Amino acid sequence: MKIDILTLFPNSFSYLDESILKRARQNGIIEINIIDIRSFSKDKHKKCDDYPFGGGAGMLMSVQPIYDAVKSVQTKNCKIIMPSPSGQLFNSEIATKLSKEEHIIFICGHYEGIDQRVNEIFDVQEISIGDYVLSGGELASMVIIDALARQIEGVISRESLEEESFVDGLEYPQYTRPQDFLGYKVPDVLVSGNHKEVAKWRKEQAGKKTKATRPDLIKTKER
Ligand code: ADE
User: What is the arrangement of strands in the sheet containing 79-89, beginning at the earlier edge strand?
Assistant: First the structure.
């Protein structure tokens, strides 16, 4: 998969060069390019924002630099995502759908938003990562990229993916060595060697956790 991130803050993305995403990039499974929108500005001072028509607080990102930045990377089958608090709420299903795309372009907004004509010109999908307002789309893009990358074949093991939260409710608690830390012990069943009992315990624990913290997930599954 190819991912192009259009941003006014190209230094914000070091997380994409760590851990699982780093490996996926090194293995050629994902190609990520960070593109500085400012370099496309035709303004002599490379300005990329302006006051909103009709008045209002703050500045808006101008259409021209974004238009030219998108045009520079756009392909026939690309999907254009604009992280935005007014978008569709992101979840695991959307991540799975996006993981099947060939090419995704992220347009990161900043300031008070983006000139609406970007949405009128391009077929843009707005996605929100939660009901709160961030200062820009950079963090949200990274959240979406991390979540979708995990669903691409070869990025993490199939087994890990199947065990992850939201596939079957939330995840059960896990423990690693030492078996006793300051008197806090690993539950006996996990060291019993009885795989059937381990599976049963995990299912129960996952059920309890889901019921306690996200009962809405159970209702969704039963519907
Ligand atoms: N940009 C600002 N806030 C956001 C949010 N909640 N989700 C996605 N993009 C955003």
Answer: 31-36, 2-7, 103-107, 79-89, 124-128
Helix axes 215-222, 195-213, angle to 10 degrees: 100
Nearest CA, atom 6, ligand 1? 85
Amino acid identity at 70: V
Model pLDDT for residues 175-221, shown as the tens digit of each residue: 999 999 999 999 999 999 999 999 999 999 999 999 999 998 886 54
The single residue listed with the structure tokens 């699982």 is 20
Q: Is the CB of 85 under 6 A from ligand 1?
A: yes
- Provide, for the chain, the percentages of residues in helix, strand and coil under a 3-state DSSP scheme, each rounded to the nearest 5: 40, 20, 40
Give 44's Cβ-side CA count (13 Å radius).
0
CB of 137 closer than 6 angstroms to any ligand 1 atom:
yes
Which of 7, 90, 133 has most ligand 1 atoms within 8 Å of its beta carbon, as the pocket-test mutant? 133
Beta 79-89 vs 124-128: how paired, if at all?
parallel
Q: Using the mean position of ligand 1's atoms as its centre, give its distance from the Cα of residue 142 in Å.
A: 11
